[in-house]
Amino acid sequence: MIPKVFAFNAFLPGGGGGDDPFQVLFGHLVPHKLESGWAIWVESTFGLAVWNIQLFQVAAVLLTGVLFSRVAVAIRTTGGGPIARVMAGWVAWIRDEMVYPNMQRKHADKLLPLFISLFFYILFMNLFGLVPFGATATASIFVTGSLAALTLVLMLVGGIIVQGPIKFWTSLVPHGVPGWLIPLMFPLEVVGLFIKPFALMVRLGANMLGGHLVLLSFLGLALYFGTHFGSAVGLAIAPVSVGMSVFMLIIESFVSLLQAYVFTLLSVIFIGSCLHPDH
C-alpha cells in the first residue's frame, strides 16, 4: 500500500496528485510529519513534531553504536566477533587513508572518532533510503546543512584554538603575496571558508536527491503506462521498468558509499588545513 502524499502535492497543480503515479512516488522524497498515535502524543506533550527522516537519523546513530560496540575489543585483541573485525578494518582504512595523510597526528588521533562516526552516520542514512518504506535523510538540505555546519564550526573554532585568533586569520593569505594583493585576497579567502562547507552541503544533498529521483522515475514507468494506457501496456513495460530500477539501485548503493567517503574526506581536508595551514 502506497502511503499518502504529504507536502509535495500542495505545490502541484490541483494539489491532490490526481492519477499521476510520479507525483505519489516523488512525494516520498519530501520530509513529512508522522501522524501515528505516538507521534501525535510526542507533539502534543513536548511541542515537537516528529518527522519521518528523524526516525532514520536515530536509526543510523543506533546502528553505528551497535556495530561499533565490540570494535575496541577487536582492535586490541583477536576477539570481538566477525562483525567487529570487519568494522575494525574500516576504522583502520579511514584512519590510514583519509585522516592521517591530511592532518597532523596529534590532532588526527583526537578527531578520528568524530570522522569515523560522521562517515558511517552519512553512509547508513544514505542506505536507509534504498530499503522499502525507507527515507533518505541526506536528501534533505536541512540534514546536509547541519552536517556541513559541524565541519564549518570545527574549521573556525578548531583553527582559532590551535593557531590563535590572530594567526588563524592572517594565515588565510598565502606567504609571499604582494602587499597590494592582500586587501583583495583576504576577503576571498574568508568567503572561501564558508563556500567549502556550503559545497559539502549541496554536493551530498543533490547527489542523494537526484539519484533517488532517477530511481523513482524508472520505477514509475510501469505504473504510469498502466494508469494511462491500460494494464496490458503497464505489464509489458514492467520488465524494463523493474530492470532499470534494479540497475539504478545498484548504482545508488555505490553512490551512497562514495558520497559518505567524499563528505568525510573533504571535511578532514578542510579542517586539517585550518588547524595547520602549512601541512
Uncertain stretches: 1-18
Given helix and strand content, the structural type is mainly alpha
Beta-strand content estimate: under 5%
Query: How many discrete domains?
Result: 2
The helix content, as a percent range, equals: over 70%
Q: What is the molecular shape?
A: globular
Radius of gyration from CA coordinates: 23 Å
What report would you give on this structure?
The chain is 72% helix and 0% strand. By secondary structure, it is mostly helical.
List the helices and strands and how they pair.
Layout lengths: L20 H6 L10 H10 L5 H16 L3 H6 L5 H18 L5 H24 L12 H23 L1 H6 L11 H48 L1 H45 L4
Based on the model shown, name its key terms:
mainly alpha, about 70% helix, disordered N terminus, 2 domains
In short:
This protein is mainly alpha-helical and 279 residues long. It has 10 helices and no strands.
